[in-house]
């Protein structure tokens, strides 16, 4: 009789009845399992994340109970919260995003595209903390200390307690922390530092995991806030293993067009504050400064009667931003007219133009349409649909919309105007900038309390919205 092993539900069983555990493999990123080792996870497509795992039933647990290293468990109402109080960084826009400042022992991951201003912002934060009496250690793996010193002199970020070091070895970085005992630590960036005890090159999955774990352990054990700079991939997500975002306390995304001075800082994860706040910054040769009132950058000509312009108000987190939309509709001799956008989703514009042509009879099939926003702002939410439509209609007919008009609403495929959230905050921001007339969805008109001096009109569909602005247009045309 054959005496080979018999497989029972993934466990090898011999003739005598004893079981020998067969090790499997598990992805450390998403938990996907496989019967043999592969270089790339079949679920999350991460490279180098599949490791050997005995799995359940693969032997007795190797970890046993030990005395608590931080003392016994306490009733929740007897735990002090003093150590978890945030301390302001001195940069108001950054404090807004972080929820008040940096918490002792917190680890912040700041990610963004190359050249967006991450290092400039953190150098300014480090200098402010140093001038406030704290000892700051700034370790750079991308530049030399002389290059960082030149930038610090240009943006006036010099302080005697701001320490600089250029290191790419993790052991040396931890040695600097032991030697200087900083109150704030900045690492620029995590993808440039590697450990000699771990295989792989700097920036690899294993190295990024080791470096981030070591920095997090050092920050937690000392009560030292740490800020780690991270790179992003082509699609804008944080480069490296997904566990990096799980381990840190705060994940911030620094965004901005390279050809624009405006920079936006968002928190996609925050254990100590909100994730719906947005910080606005102005990046120039003299450094980076916060913009407490950025709406003025986007409405330079909105108060003037210019054909093809319309103002809308978008919500970036909880902050309303007034944005001017400009449209240019011109006859085209090409068989396929152009649709060019800047700051607006091209698919959204195509949908709005199709609704205008089908529901209002606007002739746009033989017209080139160029649509842009002022100041490098982006209109990505549906609340700007009505402004896009009115700007395109105004440019097509070569007539200007009424002066001081703001349009809010999402356009549906049937031509209806749907309600959008935050109508009150949007109208208050428009009124503060001097706009005195607004068109909003008719379904929201009963819930709106108009700001002082603002006349709010409701429109159920695009045709009604055009009629509401038609009297001044006709008068202008007749004259």
Short précis:
It contains ten helices and 24 strands. The protein is α/β, with parallel strands linked by helices and 479 residues long.
Describe, in plain words, how this protein is organized in 3D.
The protein contains ten helices and 24 strands. The protein is of the alpha/beta class and 479 residues long. The protein folds into three domains: 6-53, no CATH class; 85-292, P-loop containing nucleotide triphosphate hydrolases (Rossmann fold, 3-Layer(aba) Sandwich); 296-478, 2-Layer Sandwich (Ribosomal Protein S5, domain 2), CATH 3.30.230.10. The strands form six sheets. Strands 9-8-10-11-7-12-13-14-15 form a nine-stranded mixed beta sheet, with helices on both faces. A hairpin with a 7-residue loop joins β13 and β14. The longest helix is centred in the middle third of the chain and has 18 residues, at 205-222. It starts with 5 loop residues before the first strand and ends with a helix.
Spans of at least 5 consecutive residues whose pLDDT stays below 50 are: 1-21, 472-479
Give the rounded overall mean pLDDT: 86
Total tally of structural domains: 3
Number of strand elements: 24
- Helical proportion? 10-25%
Quaternary: single chain
Report the radius of gyration as a whole number of Å.
29 Å
Proper CATH architecture of the largest domain: 3-Layer(aba) Sandwich
Instruction: Estimate the strand proportion.
Output: 15-25%
Structural class: alpha/beta
> CA-to-CA gap between the ends?
106 Å
GO molecular function: ATP binding; ATP-dependent DNA damage sensor activity; damaged DNA binding; hydrolase activity; zinc ion binding
Domain RecA family profile: 83-232
GO biological process, one term: recombinational repair
Keywords: ATP-binding, DNA damage, DNA repair, DNA-binding, Hydrolase, Metal-binding, Nucleotide-binding, Stress response, Zinc, Zinc-finger
């Amino acid at each position: 009789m054959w005496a080979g092993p018999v497989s029972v539900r993934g466990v090898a069983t011999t003739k005598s009845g004893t079981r020998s555990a067969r090790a499997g493999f598990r992805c450390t990123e998403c938990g996907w399992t496989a019967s043999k080792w592969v270089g790339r996870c079949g679920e999350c497509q991460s490279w180098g994340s599949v490791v050997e795992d005995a799995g359940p039933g693969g032997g007795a647990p190797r970890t046993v109970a030990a005395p608590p290293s931080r003392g016994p468990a306490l009733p929740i109402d007897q735990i002090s919260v003093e150590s978890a109080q945030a301390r302001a960084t001195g940069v108001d826009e950054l404090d807004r995003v972080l929820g008040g400042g940096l918490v002792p022992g917190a680890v912040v991951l700041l990610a963004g595209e190359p050249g967006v201003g991450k290092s400039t912002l953190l150098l300014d934060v480090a200098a402010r903390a140093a001038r406030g009496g704290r000892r700051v250690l700034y370790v750079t793996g991308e530049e030399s200390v002389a290059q960082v010193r030149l930038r610090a002199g240009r943006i006036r970020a010099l302080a005697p307690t701001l320490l600089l070091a250029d290191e790419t070895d993790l052991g040396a970085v931890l040695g600097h922390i032991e030697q200087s005992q900083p109150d704030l630590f900045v690492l620029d960036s995590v993808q440039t530092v590697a450990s000699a005890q771990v295989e792989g090159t700097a920036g690899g999955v294993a190295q990024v995991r080791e470096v981030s774990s070591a920095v997090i352990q050092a920050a937690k054990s000392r009560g030292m806030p740490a800020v780690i700079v991270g790179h992003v991939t082509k699609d804008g997500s944080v480069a490296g293993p997904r566990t990096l975002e799980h381990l840190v306390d705060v994940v911030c995304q620094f965004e901005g067009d390279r050809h624009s001075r405006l920079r936006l800082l968002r928190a996609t994860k925050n254990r100590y504050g909100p994730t719906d706040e947005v910080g606005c910054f102005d990046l120039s040769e003299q450094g980076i400064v916060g913009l407490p009132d950025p709406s003025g950058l986007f409405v330079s000509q909105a108060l003037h009667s210019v054909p093809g312009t319309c103002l809308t108000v978008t919500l970036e987190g909880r902050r309303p931003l007034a944005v001017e939309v400009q449209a240019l509709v011109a006859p085209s001799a090409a068989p396929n007219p152009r649709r060019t956008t800047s700051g607006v989703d091209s698919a959204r514009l195509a949908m709005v133009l199709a609704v205008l042509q089908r529901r209002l009879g606007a002739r746009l099939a033989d017209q080139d349409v160029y649509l842009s926003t002022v100041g490098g702002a982006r209109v990505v939410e549906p609340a700007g649909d009505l402004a896009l439509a009115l700007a395109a209609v105004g440019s097509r007919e070569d007539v200007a919309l009424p002066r001081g008009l703001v349009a809010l609403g999402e356009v549906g495929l049937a031509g209806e105007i749907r309600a959008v959230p935050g109508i009150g905050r949007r109208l208050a921001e428009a009124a503060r900038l001097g706009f005195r007339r607004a068109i909003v969805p008719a379904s929201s008109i009963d819930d709106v309390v108009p700001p002082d001096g603002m006349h709010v009109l409701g429109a159920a569909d695009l045709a009604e919205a055009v009629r509401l602005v038609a009297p001044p247009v006709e008068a202008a045309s007749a004259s």
